[in-house]
Amino acid sequence: MSALLLIAPLTVAADDLTAAHQVATADPALAAASMKAHDGLDDFLAKEANPPAGTSNYAVKVALADDQNGGVTVGGEPRNAEYFWLIDVEPEGDGFSATLANEPEVVRNVRNGQKISFKKDDIYDWTYMDNGKLVGNYSACAILLSGPKAELKQFEDRFNTKCSS
Questions:
Q1: Single pTM value for the model
Q2: What phi, psi does 82 have (nearest 5°)?
Q3: Are 129 and 137 spatial neighbours (Cβ–Cβ below 8 Å)?
Q4: What pLDDT is attached to residue 164?
Q5: CB 128 within 8 A of CB 135
C-alpha cells in the first residue's frame, strides 16, 4: 500500500506545496517520523494555540481518502490516501477543524481551502517556523534522507534546518 505525501511546509509559495512523493505507508523511516511528531504533538498544539513571538505558519498533516459515498475518510491508513497540510487549526468539539492547504492529486472529494474536521490521533505530522527555522515536518526529512543528497541540502538550506544529526 502506498500514499501520496506532501513534503513542503506551509512557509513557501503555493507552487511549492505541490511537492509530493509516492511512498509506502509501511516505510520504517516514515513510521519513525510519525512517532517523533506524535511525541511532540502536545507541545506543538500548546504553541499553536498561543504562538510565542517569532513563530508562524503552524500546520498539521493528516491523511484523507475518498470514501464510497462521495465523502472523505480522515486519518488512519486508508487505501489510496493522500496526506494534506491543514492550516488555521481551531478546537472543535473533541477534535479540531482546519483549512486544507494543498491541491489534491489523488483524493477527489476535497478541495484546497476546504474546512476539514479531525481528531488529535489523526495528526500524522506538524510544522511551524520559529524565527526563520523550520520545526517539525519530520515526514519531509524521512523522505529526503533516502533521496538525492542535493534535494536534502536544498531543503535544509532553504528552511534553516537539519534533517540528519
A1: 0.82
A2: -130, 135
A3: no
A4: 73
A5: yes
Could you give the CA distance from residue 161 to residue 154 in angstroms, rounded to a whole number? 10
The answer for residues whose C-beta is within 8 angstroms of residue 43's C-beta and 6 or more apart is: none
What is the domain partition of the chain in residue ranges? Answer: 2-158
| Residues in contact with 134: Cβ distance below 8 Å, sequence separation at least 6, in sequence order | 9, 11, 127, 159, 160, 161
Among the listed ranges 1-15, 83-97, 120-134, 151-165, which one has the minimum average pLDDT value? 1-15
Residues near 20 by Cβ (< 8 Å), separated by ≥ 6?
4, 5, 6, 7, 105
Rounded CA-CA distance 156/85 in Å is 19
3-state class of 21 per DSSP? Answer: strand
From the CA atom positions of the chain, what is the Rg in Å? 15
Task: Report the amino acid identity of residue 133.
Answer: K
- Whether the per-residue pLDDT at 165 is higher than 80: the answer is no
